[in-house]
Amino acid sequence: MDFVRGGVREMMIARPDSAKDLIVYKHPERTIPKYSQLTIDADEAAVFFRDGSLVGVLRTAGVGQRHQLDTGNIPFLSNLVDSFTGGNIFVTDLYFVSMRPNRNTKFGGPFPPMKDPELEITVSPRIFGTFIWRVVEPDKFIVNYVGMGGTPSNDRVESFIQTKFMNSVKKTVPNFVIRQKIEIQALPAYHDELGQSFLQKCDDLSEIGAQFLGLGDFTINFSDDELKRIQGAQDRYADIKAKKRAKDELTGGNFMQYAAGEAMLGAGQGMAKGGEGTGTVGAGAGLGMGFAMANMYGQQMGQPGGQPQQQPPPQASPAPQGGTVTCPGCSAKVPPGKFCAECGTSLAPPQPKPCAACQTMLAPGTKFCPNCGTRAT
Question: Which of 6, 54, 278, 322 is the most buried (most CB within 10 A)?
Fold first, then answer.
């Protein structure tokens, strides 16, 4: 509303209702009569410029205020006085800058291709969400960011800030995947941890007089094509793990199963060479040993749950009639016991021993190793 008092045309200056949602609003008139009434809402500040230079800022401290524009009330207005009008006019570019939090600023888009540390495929997830920010230094926000043009749209004001935030997100997520060693498809489960990382790693906006306040909701998802690729990789990975687990169950912790296979392999190699080196007798002996050990393996696998059959403890040689045994060292007939009463040789039955060259277990009485052909010691 305009009115006249004492011959000076005064006016009421305030942000119009139609511009309440704008982050920055520029008053359309550059000339303001002295004693005009300036209303500043509780959530904004008024910034005065002249000839492209900052002159002063009026803040409200959270309470709406009305100021009479007079150099006696606001000293910095003396720098805006137009001397050609007898000091009754202020010449200024006046901006209203919203100081309230902007709670629904959107961000989002695809990430650069990332390698999944578990599946070893390259995928590109997407993220969409909102964050919260606000202006904290309105003069710096205009000088270093918005500029001295007309009233900018919120989209133009927020575009740079959105880009800054998204850049921090693009740097944070790949580092998070590498540090946590997780599948990229599992990222949505780390919603809270990622949100904290985004705010900790986001770029500083103090240079333009703004500040990130928090994160709204966000989602991480994949395109249909990416989901198909991930599912295919997961199926292949699961198949590989199943085969490895089956192999480990067959060989892990069961030496006799492994030795049986090694013995049969060595016998087969000896037969292929026609008995070279160790002779056909040695090859035949090795083959017989391999079949015997394979038969033992089959008996073990026939037990419930695939557990090896418990072997009875070694028994001493059966005592012949008369209550004596034959010493393997001196051939004397001696009473049963652990050692020979004549020469001290152990009376325990011979045990398998390893080959000196390849460590394959050799059955008692074996003269040559069926795996490498080395003479048994």
Answer: 278
